[in-house]
Amino acid sequence: MVLIDAAPHTERMAQSVLLTGAAGRVGTAILGGLSDDYEWRLLDRDPPTGDQPGEFVVADITDGEAVREAMEGIDVVIHLAGDPRPEAPWNSVLTNNIDGTQTVFEAAVDAGVEKVAFASSNHAVGNYETEERTPEMYRAHDDYLLDGTELPRPSNLYGVSKAAGETLGRYYHDEYDLSVVCVRIGNLTEGHPPIDYERGQAMWLSYRDCAHLFDRCIQADYDYEIVYGISDNDRKYYSLERARDVLDYDPQDNSAHYDGDERVLEPDA
Amino acid sequence: MVLIDAAPHTERMAQSVLLTGAAGRVGTAILGGLSDDYEWRLLDRDPPTGDQPGEFVVADITDGEAVREAMEGIDVVIHLAGDPRPEAPWNSVLTNNIDGTQTVFEAAVDAGVEKVAFASSNHAVGNYETEERTPEMYRAHDDYLLDGTELPRPSNLYGVSKAAGETLGRYYHDEYDLSVVCVRIGNLTEGHPPIDYERGQAMWLSYRDCAHLFDRCIQADYDYEIVYGISDNDRKYYSLERARDVLDYDPQDNSAHYDGDERVLEPDA
Fold first, then answer.
1. Has keyword NAD (chains A, B) (predicted)?
2. ipTM, two decimals
3. CB nearest B164 (choices: A151, A164, A174)
């Protein structure tokens, strides 16, 4: 027998990716950029409102049985599900964010998943923004920089829950050799960066940079990482070094290239 | 009017200290050394078996109402209550250790408590003890040292819960100006250090050093601290620098001064 068609062997099989919290804002940005690139299984407690790629599982992240079933045949998990409100009360983040994330890591290990990208948050380190440092740290000339090696310093109980999720990831990596990347997501907005909000401009994440960053979380090889998920903003006080070095993240956007809601085609130096 | 008896003003009033998990091993060591020094309110889910100083509250740490009541008139809280088993299942540490600790911090802030000393654990950083580093790191000649600025790296879900408690402490300090010290307790044994167990000898904490350390947590002034709770062991891989500098901790014991279960009066150099 002569093999005359090698295409099925040379063409890379699309990876199966489970996206929890798919209907949220981060999920929307990811699917906006990557819907055709992977075999998607989307999970959300709310049913889809429009056309979605792949399969859709309607389930709450605290439903262990449903989460375990959703892991079957999955290569990579992007775990976004949880209560996204910075002002969420303790009981909600304890259940949805801390317990929910443990459920995801445990199920991922049991199912033989290779990688989990966990949506952490800038709120896990929000209290580094002390009165003494702000607003100067939000400005381009200031060189204060967090790089992901600092201890958590949450600005709310939501941030506490995200830091706990990062620590769970560390444990599941160390114990079970699961690749885990925690992405401390900044201020994600569609279109232009936040207006008249220096902090938001400093940690802006554009939709296309968001999709690209999670694409790199699916593709890259890593052990355990904490990275910052922001665009390449002049105003940034989060280092992009680990995201660039480990994930090959190459952001295209910068909040400084906008004036109000207008894109400035020739950015100022 | 002439003040002729200044004694009530110069003699320091004993501080009121709430000790949660009072019936456990750490509580026993603390009360063994400090029972006469403070106005104690002891809280445990198990009623006392012997004579105890002060008041005793029988309550579970997850009983928010009981914890809030127990905070009344308290200056300092030593929070030990929780599931102490390194192999404890997730649901237990989620409820007893993570949720229980949030209940304690929240109630402490509401009651106007000044300081909380939180019993964290060596298990919060147990996975720094990698195959490559052990057993060398347990030996006196090895200079590997954790100092409390490193990110958590738990060796079990119990350790994850202790790291989450530390992060809660950071939050309650930053937001409410509560003084918080997290003590990563090593291997506490009464009498002599563990025999034929290098790791235990490296992180040994004697009963008298334990009582003295928590005495310093009651007395010293601090903002937010993570310290290691061990004796001054030759084998140590945990730094005592922050405990010495911030708390004025001055440990008297060293596991190297024992040979088997015998105290060596003239320690080897």
1. yes
2. 0.93
3. A164
